[in-house]
Amino acid sequence: MGTLKVMTISIQHENCWTSELEDLEAITMNYHVYPDKGYLRSRIVINAGDRSVVGKMRNSQGVVKVNKVTTYNDVNFVDFLNRYRGSIAGLLYDMEVMFLFNKIRRGVETWSFVISRDRTSEVLRSLSSQGKLLDYTIDDYKLQLGPNLSQAEKRALRTALANGYLDYPRRADADVVASELGLSKVTFLHHLRNAYRKLATHYLTKSQYLE
């Protein structure tokens, strides 16, 4: 069993601004904690059509101030201050976990973070004191900065992109790209599909919290 664990929890946080906004669906991009000032600064993303949520946030007791709302394409970036004490973010900061992601959906906060194995029970007890713990998972932490493509897979992907094989419609067929690489068509497609699979697996694993 690994020393470091990834814990993902879902909680209905009582007496928090997130529990007051049941129609909110948001993803936290990042946050900074200022314990000495009694607040934390969060930046979340919500759908552009949910602009009314911002007005509700301004009136929430847990929100100190909405600093700025920026609309880009179909999303709103909301920069705001919320209370440090009594927040899940503040609790996790005090427990010195490594933050991975947070999403808020219809009154439920989902957090994922890295913690040492010997502190998992302590963290669960502390979180349970903040609200109704709906679900949690604990897995081994495996650091992966990116998909581990082989040199052959990188060459196949790079050459396919440069020659327009990935365009629609294609500007080159598999035979042309394979010839440039000095490979058979079958070998080129083998490397390319392996690259596709690794990239897709990496992206979908990292983006699970968006669903």
TrEMBL record:
InterPro entries: HTH_bacterioopsin
Domain of life of the native organism: Archaea
Pfam family for this entry, one: HTH_10
Limits of the HTH bat-type domain: 149-200
Record's protein name: Bacterio-opsin activator
Taxonomy of the source species: Archaea, Thermoproteota, Thermoprotei, Sulfolobales, Sulfolobaceae
